[in-house]
Hints:
single chain; 8 strands
Amino acid sequence: MTTTIYKIAHRAAWDEACVAGRFTGAPVDLKDGYIHFSTAAQVAETAARHFAGESDLVLVAIDAEALGTALKWEPSRGGLLFPHLYAALDMAAVKWTRSLPLDADGRHRFPPLEP
Length: 115
């Protein structure tokens, strides 16, 4: 079974990465030295905590196994393990990309997620 992990990104930055063929990270990723990802169970809280009210975002689904040993599972919020990529994200690992719109209450509406 393939593990799917998720990245929330600003559409303009993601579009640039698609042209370049790889995503090197958002400003927070560059500051921390790795690309932050979330699991299906974590991504809604990540959106609420770090992207509240922001529009023009995309949700990117990534095949975790395709990232190899550069992907590390490390403790973060309350000791939960989060996936961190210590390399650029190669577009070959991307399964799909979807818009992440806001609903009437200002919360992000997620498409169906894979575990």
